[in-house]
Amino acid sequence: MTGSIILALAGAGLVGLGLYGVIMRENALHRILAFNVLGGGIFIVFGFAARRGAGAGFAADPVPQALVITGIVVAFSATALATAIVVRLAAARDEEHADARSAKDEG
Amino acid sequence: MTQDHASFLADGSGHLLLAGLPPGPLLALVIILPLAGLVPLLLAGPRVGEWAAMTLAGLGLAVATIIALQVWWSGTPAIYHLGGWRPPLGIALRADGVSSVLLVMSAAVFCGIGLFATTGRDRKTSFPPTYWMLSLCVASGLNLAFLAQDLFTLYVALELLTFAAVPLVCLEGKAAQLEAALTYLLFALLGSLLYLLGAVLIYAETGTLDIGLAGQRLAADSAMTGIALALMSAGLAAKAALFPLYLWLPPAHAGAPPAASALLSSLVIKAPIFLLLRIWLGLAPADLAERAAPVLAILGTGAILFCGLRALGQTRLKLLIAYSTAAQLGYVFLMLPLVKSSGPLTIPEALAWTGGFLHIVSHAFAKAAMFMAAGVIAEALGHDRIRALGGAAQAAPLSVAAFAIGGLSLMGLPPSGGFVAKVMLLTAAIQQGVPWIAVVVLAGGLLAGGYVLRVVVCALQRPEASATFVQISLRRQAMALVLAVAAIVLGFIPLEPMGFLLVGRP
Amino acid sequence: MMTAFDAGLGVLLVLAAVRVVATSDVRAAASGFLAYGMILALAWVRLESVDVALTEIAVGSGLTTIVILRAIAHVPSPPSSSTAGAKAAVGLLCACVTLGLSAVILGLPEPASSIAADVAMNMPATGLGNPITGVLMVFRALDTVLETIVVLLALIGVWALVPQERLAGRPATPGTGRSPEPVVFLARALVPIGLVVGAYQVWAGADVPGGKFQGAAVLAAMGLLLMMAGIVKAPAATDVKLRALLLVGPILFLAVGIAGWPLAGSFLGYPPGFEKPVIIVVEIASTISIGLALVMLVLGPPGRASS
């Protein structure tokens, strides 16, 4: 049980680190990675709650585990959507720059 | 009161119609019904998909209305356990007076926005099937947020809303829109995660995610409860753009195409706001709620005054309306110090309760109308610069009328839903001896008067000689007017506590 | 002994996260994230959550890292402009969050309350052996079906980012140009094994660790490998077969849910006596839909940006 507490405290550390990255990193992709660190920390704390709730023949309460599994899949979906927006944004900026330049050349 | 309703309905044909239908499964139906639209939208052509989406929107309004009538008629909340599994093991859905009013509100506004979106027929203004898919998921997510009793299911609802709302901002793919969408997404994701962390801590403390059960088990004196509720509130405040976290809202709501702006600003934003109220009026221990209420009311005041001033200073019409959303939402939080979180309410308290929720409803109708009207005005003039709006009243007369009528509700002038809501908050504040809230309500009304009138005055000016207008069909202009008039009709609600809204209060 | 192991694991985990967050180079952060994910999965094993560990390795770290690495080349990195003061202030705030959270963790009430006993008592009614599958598919089926919709919705969102006429094009496959020989070999050797593993995870998930999310991730990885090797082409977003397969999982799940209303007396209830076969069919359909959605999410929208 002491081991689980240590891991939960590490999870608390991940939450702080992830939050720092989310606020301070300027590259959007880096920020997205920091979101995943933050999410990982939250899930670990939930996993600790599951481990504490062990009983009735289960080594860990199955409800939080099930929720974390769906949570991880949703976090990945969020990552993919955010990344796609970041890539499209970079491309759209390039296109608009190019359009502006060609308009200038013609004018 | 509810007895009267019961006998009224029992005499009418409504009773016979509804008696055979158990309300429970309808709660599940209203959540999954919009999702059925994904099939035709993904597999059939755009016209079939659009038709299916509108049919589902209409059906959704019908189901929501039946649920509301059932709750009204019975005077008790409708509760449904999915799969027959009761909490804490299973998930419960629950429609009380407030949730059923919000269900009908969102379904009705959704139909209005949908009809508006179908009028954009040419290449520039019509929407791809993705618009309809995203907006149907918005409808499903809203209904889930209004009904779910489970903190994790509510997290799913918030994610559903985020994933549907963010791409709506950048449907046209311009760099500025993509940037606004990205900022919105990052705020929303941070909000979701903070909310989730709070929910996790509540589970760790109470062993349940059910709001009702957790509310009974939360220790009032533990710092843990405070931390969990604070984390959830911070997350929801980021999603609700509550002052000072409003910065993402104006570019996102103003940058989107008009039908998307209307959806985001009138409906999507209401889900996190409703959940904030749920947390402090349903989950939090009473004395913690009492201490948090003034803090939230002060943030609401900040929103009303600061964002109201910012709206006054805008040069673009759509940005002005977006800032006004951030300001108007503040009123909802003025209700918190004026009501108790549990137990029977006194008449002034019930008045504040009614006013707060009525404000949510009338703002939804008025704001959807204003964004749609502004979109049409921008299409007619080719721009939305406020100082150059001259001629708008000739080019798009119904739209300018819709904007002005919706604006009445924002300013709180009679007759309008906004007027009744604000008078209720004002009266409750004075009767309960909290005059500063009354002052804020009045000041916010003056600011709204300033920014709405400025637009209307400019729109009534003569056009510049060189100006050319695009002709907009009356059909496209009409829908905004219908919603604006609905906001006016809400103004004929009697100025007294509404028993229906109190059904199922903890 | 195990406590010492956990302590080491906790320290490693935090160090890995520091490496992800603290570096100013995104590429280094992304590769650091892969290592972080592996350590995180180990932590999940130590928390007695093998199902979560499997999902974390496959989806949380694996697919996430691929998505970020593919995007890095297309996105310019802005120069850092934060001041030392801002860093210190934000650092202090985040440290407070960690400390507050730690205090909560250490102060959780004893004995811990949980739903484990409720789950144990009601598992026989589900006909399943794996309690996590029981929670996902029976007790909290609404969350699960909506999460499959969320994954599909994320994909719809990605498709909404490009002009509709571009959707008919195929998304760029991972890797560049001609497929290198080793990748082709790897694909031919690994994919059959991967398919078996993925299918087994879904099948066995009813009774032992595994299930649709993990199975879907393994299948998605195999699909991506086939595309990298040039053996299979990425489908276009407008492909009707693809769209039908994306829908089959969520729609079948919802249909079973609605059928539960007349057949089992409750929405999302299962017909008594047929719980397990129905659940397995729904799981298989969901695996196909989620797996394909994951592949398409990794590939991203078609168009100039990703080619």
| C-alpha-based Rg of chain A, rounded | 21 Å
The unreliable regions of chain B are 1-17
The gyration radius over C-alpha positions of chain B equals 22 Å
Beta-strand residue percentage of chain A: under 5%
Assembly category: heterotrimer
Low-pLDDT runs of chain A: none
| Largest beta sheet: strand ordering of chain B | 1-2
| CATH fold-level assignment of chain A | Helix Hairpins
Gross morphology of chain A is: elongated
The figure for the number of domains of chain A is 1
Total DSSP helices of chain A: 3
Order of helices and strands of chain A: HHH
Largest sheet of chain B: 2 strands, antiparallel
Describe the structure.
The complex is a heterotrimer of chains A (107), B (506) and C (307). Chain A contains three helices and no strands. Chain A has 107 residues and is an all-alpha fold. The longest helix of chain A is centred in the last third of the chain and has 45 residues, at 62-106. Chain B has helices at 2-11, 13-19, 23-32, 38-43, 46-74, 97-118, 129-147, 151-169, 175-206, 211-217, 223-240, 249-255, 258-268, 270-283, 286-312, 317-328, 330-334, 347-381, 392-395, 397-411, 417-431, 435-460, 474-489, 499-502, and strands at residues 78-81, 92-95. Chain B is globular and about 70 Å long. The two termini of chain B are 18 Å apart. Mean pLDDT of chain B is 91; it is low at 1-17. The model of chain C has no long low-confidence stretch (mean pLDDT 87). Chain C has helices spanning 2-22, 26-46, 50-72, 84-106, 116-122, 131-139, 141-160, 181-204, 212-228, 240-264, 275-299. Chain C is globular, with a radius of gyration of 22 Å. Chain C has two domains: 1-76; 124-307, no CATH class. Classes of the chains: A mainly alpha (107), B mainly alpha (506), C mainly alpha (307).
